[in-house]
Amino acid sequence: MDVSQYLEIFIDETSEHLQSLSDCIMSLEKEPDNKDTINEVFRAAHSLKGMAGTMGFKRMQHLTHDMEDVFQEVRSDKIVVNSKMIDILFKCLDALDKYLETIKETSDEGTEDNQAIIKELNDFIAQSEGQEVSTEKPSVSSEPETGAEKKFLKIDLTNEEKEAIRNTKDDENHIYGFTVYIHPECLLKAARAFLVFQAVEDFGEVVVYRPNPHDIEDEKFELDFSFFLIASEQLDKIIPAVKAVSEITSVLAEEIQPERFEQKEEKEEKEEQPKQETTESAVTPQAELQQKAQPAAVKKTAKKPVTSRTVRVDIEKLDALMNQVSELIIAKNGLASISMTEGGNFENQAFHEQIEYLERITTNLHESVMQVRMVPIESVVNKYPRMIRDLSRKLDKKMELFMSGEDTELDRTVVDQIGDPLQHLLRNSADHGLESAEVRKERGKPETGAIYLNAFQEGNNVIIEVSDDGNGIDTEKVKEKAIQRGVITPEQAEIMDQKEIVNLLFMPSFSMAKKITDISGRGVGLDVVRSNIEALGGDVEVSSRLGAGSKFTVRLPLTLAIIQVLMVEIRNEKYAVALGSIQNIEDIPVNEIRYVEAKEVIHLRGLVIPIIRMDKILDIEPLEEEPENLTVVIVKKGDKYAGLVVDSLIGQQEIVIKSLGKFIRNNKVISGATILGDGEVALILDVNALI
Amino acid sequence: MENEVLVSEKDTKQYIVVKIGSEQYGFDINYIDNIVRMQRITRVPKAQRYFKGIINLRGEIVAVMSIRLKMELEDDEFSDASRIIILKIQDLGTVGIIVDEVKEIVELGTDDIERQSKQDKNDKNTFISGIGKHGDELISLFDIYAVVDESENI
Description:
- The complex is a heterodimer.
- By secondary structure, chain A is an alpha+beta fold.
- In chain A, strand 10 and strand 11 form a beta hairpin.
- Chain A is flat.
- The two termini of chain A are about 60 Å apart.
- By secondary structure, chain B is mainly beta.
- Chain B has helices spanning about 1-10, 65-70, 145-150, and strands spanning about 10-20, 25-30, 30-35, 50-55, 60-65, 85-90, 95-100, 100-110, 115, 130-135, 135-140.
- Chain B is globular.
- The chains are: A alpha+beta, B mainly beta.
- At the A-B interface, strand 21 and strand 22 of A face strand 4, strand 5 and strand 7 of B.
């Protein structure tokens, strides 16, 4: 048994508890009298303490213990929640986070004692109580539970165990029997038991286990376990070591005379009648034990189906699975293209049907794998309320974060990497977007600024909007600065529209903050946000109204590897357009093209849609003679449309996205390549970059 | 630089000798993953001029470069002898280089190589690390990292 095998569970559960603590403390700040929240906080802190103790992280345990004290005081109405207390608690959480980070990296909690924070906590309790330190410790340990019995006395030894005792025992050492009771609320009983064994093994050798070591390891015991230890030290030195393991309710132990076994044995050998008695008396507790263990086992098996519904899988395994699915789809496409070229033959009917069947299966398979990789963005966004609270303090501005759509799901890889860009956008809103309370009052806005984070799915994309009701972006200032920095020339600035100017913010090293703060404006700015999001195959846009606020819209692809596309042909080149962004396909007579600001547009069902000549964009020789009708693929991005002029449509297909590699210069129009069924390579058009 | 490390371990190194125009060039065999026949190259719009496009190399997408255009020679004319040398470079990935013809593999010792100092930036010698002497033939040895370096050509 090794405690490290629990490390992963510990890390996962600890981050969950820390998150729930953070959430609770946030809501406690708003409603200091909510008993449910206080209880919840107390529970979370208690579990944290327990788990840290189990894993032997003493410093972490110490800190949570002191936090728990504070919550206990709150619970028993001895202290009132105030903002100072909340601040201290958040400091504690940060410290715990640091411990967890260190543990993640090194499997050890590090050496930071956080004495300062612990002192603050204790001072706080002392202060609010007027030195009257509570004697009633919330800790439940070391309180002997009634009904504890020396179960080790009733252990019926097997012959092998007797043999083992005889072999290990010599005149120097003693045999001690132990029964250890674990606290009923203990979360990792097996780990506790492990620590107990670790502690006693410093003194001697454990020779008998009840239940057997395997069951102890699998937590197949109720609240107690017993063992025999052979050691040379005195018992009163060993017991404190066992008691030092936290969440142990009581430790019962005494020295056992070896004659006991010998006697038993003799009895067994000689007298038939008493032997039955002894075995009976020995068996009964065991049966009792078994009976006790039995319900536990039953409970477990009854519970099992529920718990084993989720499986933790390494993301790399899922990546590997996804790659296999990709390969399968390429192979399927190859097969399909053969069936097309050799089609027309009626004998191939069955072959075609099988190909179609295969197509359905691969599509479903892909969807299933995709589903497995999807996780809600909650895990990323739920740390933001806390961040905004801290920012509010730091910037001395009143603000509140409103979130919606936390349950929106995205591919795991995307979720893992979207945290930083979103955080940056939120900080940006808090720092540059929102005005100070005085200015807000002057402008007739509520004193508390609002920041919104909304997430939702739109077709094959997930949209995350970060907006605020602050000052908005001053386009004149942006222009001025852009010219000053040589990003654009004054002539260029003249002809730029609002939107183009606002998007200048995403240019490298364009920090708009007039004063540099440590929140944002450290030189790395929105350009980093944009490149991070683009690396995920997404894009970001900003819209703003001066005085009313601004809105950043982040668009992310739902999937990274495989998409449904429409294959189109332009001259002899094949291109793929993501089906998710296609609105519809139109045949437009050339004479319906109108001109607005010297740009070609079409009028379609009340919409004016700019048309894009794909051959021009892609540097393809123009046709000598324009056809009478144009095939136009209408694509949509948010509320904007564009019509892509292509030569012909090939059809719908499922493709595997491949990167162009690091050599070919990052190309805005092309987002990747794919291998078609016949082995030919086609390029994927990035519609979002075209509009 | 990377050559020197290897040279110190071993006195001779193998080079694949190719023909580009009338001259002979050598690629350090350690960087070569494969040599394939000319195949259909898919053009990538807006890419660097000397990138002919991409090919499908057993299910992987590989960018193909015209070393002729990169060295500012005349554009390639594909023939039956044309080959794509597939280079695999750590941290950068795989890239294909079009050559007119692959001739042979030669072994060159340190003594057979005359180091070339980098001169003019736009000189085609920028891509050459040294001149190898094999019999009475001269082989210009490519500095692989200079050939695939993109930083100066954006």
